[in-house]
Amino acid sequence: MSSSTVSIPSTHYLNNGTTLKSWLLTKDHKRIGLLYLAAVTFFFMLGGAFAVAIRLELVTPAGDLLSDANYNKAFTLHGVIMVFFFLIPAIPSVLGNFLIPLMIGAKDLAFPKLNLLSFYIYFVGSLFTMYAMVSGGLDTGWTFYTPFSTVASTTAVVPAALGIFINGFSGILTGLNFIVTIHRMRAPGMTWFRLPLFVWSHYATSLIQVLGTPVLAITIVLVAAERIFGFGLFNPAVGGDPVLFQHLFWFYSHPAVYIMILPAMGIVSELIAAFSRKQVFGYGFVAFASIGIAVIGFLVWGHHMFVSGESVYAALVFSFLSFLVAIPSAVKVFNWTATMYKGSLSWEIPMLYAVGFIGLFAIGGLTGLFLASIGLDVHLTDTYFIIAHFHYVMVGGTIMAYLGGLHFWWPKITGRMYNRTLGKFSAALVFVGFNLTFFPQFVLGYLGMPRRYHAYPDEFQVLNVLSSAGASVLAVGYLLPLFYFALSLKYGEIAGDNPWGAVGLEWNTTSPPPTENFPVTPVVTWDAYEYPTPVEGHVV
Amino acid sequence: MSNGAAVAHDPHHNPNLAHHFESMEQQTEASILGMWVFLVTEILFFGGALMAYMVYRSQYPDAFALASSHIAILPGAINTAVLILSSLTMALAVHAAQTGERTKIMFFIVITMILGAAFLGIKAYEYYEKYEEHFIPGMGLQFIFPEPEYQQNAQIFFSIYFVLTGLHALHMIIGLGIMTWMFIWVKNGTITSEYFAPIEISGLYWHFVDIVWIFLFPLLYLIGRHVHHV
After folding, report:
1. Which residue of A has its CA nearest to B135?
2. Which residue of A has its CA nearest to B151?
3. Which of A22, A430, B97, B157 is the 20 to 30 A CA-CA neighbour of A289?
4. A292-344, pLDDT tens digit by residue?
5. Amino acid A22: pLDDT
6. Is there a domain that residue B217 lies in?
7. Assigned domain for A57 exists
8. Between chains, do A233 and B51 touch, taking CB under 8 Å as contact?
9. pLDDT at residue A180 above 90?
């Protein structure tokens, strides 16, 4: 697609310093993004290894591969690692870090040193949690419910929780950095309503990081105080209330789901526009839907506790609000679809992921409505239906978009294009493997198979075998990109500055970009997604 | 900090201007906004523990009022005064920074630090009192409440007391660290009348920690103590 500029510039952020120190002590947002890329990829593999253990165990009805205690540890560590060390940081810390300054025409984030500090906080936090992993494991579930986590569990609760506490500050500081950057670092002419929707969705995400994460932090402090010092805070023996823990935990951990999905939605907006060659339909609606999801997302946590002993009145309100959050989500889905309508579509790999995202997120979102209905939720609580639902959102949503984003911006990040045949093959494997893994789990859950058990009745075996088979396909689909991305670094064809013919400031600089992003600070005189005006016309 | 070729030939270039900012004004605004966003995070952090306090206070109003009445009011009241005074000296330090009076900044920072240390000393004395009175609800110590019928629920009060005041004290200690850092920066000339944002945002942090105490004092010491006169 690119015609003229197909060479790698002589100096860019990747060759500006090649020592290990120049990477580990870098303050360049692009390099920090790549440090995160390496780290979250490692944790994705580690969390994935626990998923392999879970799916292998569930091939047979008997609990034969893992003991019940080890199974508890496997699903707990799968959840803790995937949620806190992969899903929450993945898109903001890798792609957000790399792209936000480029997209708004800035030289860097507002606080480059703080950005590097965030990375090392993440690193130290992960060390604590990995220490917990090798020193007795963790069997509380990723939710750390009291009083089991405070007085009963004999596993390494404190180091694991401490790791999550520390890691939380990485998210808070990244969110803070993004908020200040988006407020104060925009290039001349880059008004709020010219911002790419990727930036809007990261702004909404950052609000949740800054407002929600500290509540998880204090909750962990309370749990640790109870476990280390023996303070009575959630312990029913002195009148403490375990349900209060659940309120505090979900006040963060439900919005955390939106920390995962909002940046994914931002990516999808970029991809759909770029490969439909059209302005995003209803830009303002999509932008404010992000803020709407962030705000309403803070008011729905009680739907995790319909069976935990909250009042019927509270349950009704939370149920209503949970239905309400579907509205901005649906606005986005409809607007993406409307963007594609009469667009000039091209089925490049990122677009395959984006369209896959829309389908899977729609299923994940709609099954969320089942669970927001109090009566049905009582039947489905703690079954595989829940597992399937949130994997459709987190894996089918977040990871699909993350992979789509990586495939879209990879030529910008590295200057080189990957093998597109393998890319299409792997996208197909991910889509098929994902559905084969998780769709049977909806049925299993509806039939009553509970989560978090290593054994199950014989009649559930066929569906479980299907699910494990799907997981194998999915694993291949996830491993392939590692392989061809790595190969592309050396053998990939030179991508050029704008291989997709996309608009957006990040495509107006070289691939890879120079350390300060733009030779001259750009002056923006156009709206986001001004297709189909010729791309060259935009270069400042 | 600055490696930008673009700004190198600007004769008015301030050495404290980081390469990715266009002007000192933009840099100052960014750091002040950053601190405000951080303080919002802090509010939510203490907010979680205050939520636990509110829930238990409404569940066990008698135990909480009674437990409150067992805390001596004088050290807490003195500490409140000490912190309010330290906020004043902090504000004077920020003012001096804006006008560029170096000795004055250092003087007020030192006074602020002395007041902060005095607060922590009095707080330590209070903790020792709690230890003497067997009001520590854990750590292998025996918790003994004078009114046995509230023995259990009073433990919740004191657990929250120690979590809240402990976290507040930790913030004070961090504040003293920041003040030391700022003192060094004023002394070695990093802080100038163009580059005083570090003093200003340190001041914001200090005032915030004071305000947290302004909430903790009534919540933990005052509310309901008239119900059970000491």
Report:
1. A231
2. A238
3. A430
4. 999 999 999 999 999 998 899 999 999 999 999 999 999 999 999 999 998 99
5. 94
6. yes
7. yes
8. no
9. yes
Tally of CB atoms within 10 A around A224 = 18
Contact, B65 vs B229, CB < 8 A?
Answer: no
> Would A14 be classed as within a structural domain?
no
Q: Which residues pair with A450 in a beta bridge?
A: A383
Which of 219-238 (A) contact B at CB < 8 A?
219, 221-222, 225-226, 229-233, 237-238
What's the domain range around A283?
Answer: 31-538
Contact state of B163 with A231 under an 8 Å Cβ cutoff:
yes
Q: Is B36 on the interface with A (CB under 8 A)?
A: no
- The half-sphere exposure of B139 on its side-chain side, counting CA atoms within 13 A, is 9
pLDDT, one tens digit per residue, over A109-166 is 999 999 999 999 999 999 999 999 999 899 999 999 999 999 899 999 999 999 999 9
Chain B closest-CA separation from residue A534 CA (Å): 30
Instruction: Compute the mean pLDDT over every residue in chain A, rounded to the nearest whole number.
Output: 94
Query: What's the gap between Cα A45 and its chain centre?
Result: 15
Number of domains in chain A: 1
Q: In this structure, what token pair is assigned to residue A239?
A: 């009148």
Q: For residue A151, count CB atoms less than 10 angstroms from its CB and return exposed for 0-12, middle for 13-18, buried for 19 or more.
A: middle
CATH number of the CATH domain containing B130: 1.20.120.80
Residue A19 lies in a domain: no
pLDDT score, position B141: 87
Is the ipTM of this structure higher than 0.85? yes
Interchain proximity B47–A218, CB inside 8 Å:
yes
Across A385-405, average pLDDT: 97
pLDDT confidence of residue B226: 75
User: Locate tokens 């009083």: which residue?
Assistant: A147
Residue among B42, B51, B153 minimizing CB distance to A248: B51
